[in-house]
Design brief:
Strand content: 5-15%
Number of strands: 4
Shape: elongated
Order of helices and strands: EEHHHEHHE
Helix content: 55-70%
Length: about 180
């Protein structure tokens, strides 16, 4: 398969189903932010040792492609909804598990600490932006069955936050925000 096709050189490209659209379309804001977020997850996993957390992050990366497929095809299938609902349960179980071992949060923290934690925080903030982009797009497009994706992204950013704290607690420390008066 060739990397370049030259079919997008005029600013248009094809969505799933063969529909040709301009690359400035709102759907590409969603698709591009999904790609950016997935890339940050890839960088974060490079700094995480083999573990259930790394395995879950790899599964989440696959889910991000599945979500992109839904937007490219403008249909969120029943199978996708069911899959994401199951993954939501996995994410929530992991949040609860990690939250039990993390030190109790008594202050605001700055993104940073270990390399894994820093990239997880970048992923978390990108995921929050992705959630806003998806909400904005779906409000304009009235795309059906999108609520599970919004819920998934919302919970996912929570997971990335507790996971970032977990990796800071394994060697580095959370960076406490100090309010300068």
């Amino acid at each position: 398969m060739r990397i370049y096709t030259k079919s997008g050189d005029d600013g248009y490209t094809h969505l799933k189903g063969g529909v040709r659209v301009h690359k400035s379309g709102d759907v590409f804001e969603v698709l591009g932010t999904l790609d950016e977020f997935n890339s940050y997850l890839g960088v974060a996993t490079a700094f995480i040792p083999e573990s259930n957390n790394k395995k879950l992050l790899r599964n989440i990366q696959n889910d991000i492609f599945l979500i992109g497929d839904s937007f490219a095809g403008k249909i969120v299938s029943t199978k996708t909804i069911s899959h994401l609902e199951g993954r939501l349960q996995d994410i929530e179980r992991n949040i609860d598990k990690l939250d039990k071992v993390n030190r109790q949060l008594k202050n605001f923290i700055l993104p940073g600490g270990s390399k894994a934690s820093a990239f997880l925080h970048v992923g978390r903030s990108t995921c929050r932006r992705l959630e806003r982009v998806v909400c904005n797009y779906t409000k304009k497009q009235k795309q059906k069955n999108i609520n599970v994706i919004i819920k998934y992204l919302n919970r996912l950013s929570d997971y990335l936050f507790v996971l970032a704290r977990y990796y800071n607690n394994k060697g580095s420390e959370d960076v406490i925000w100090k309010k300068n008066l």
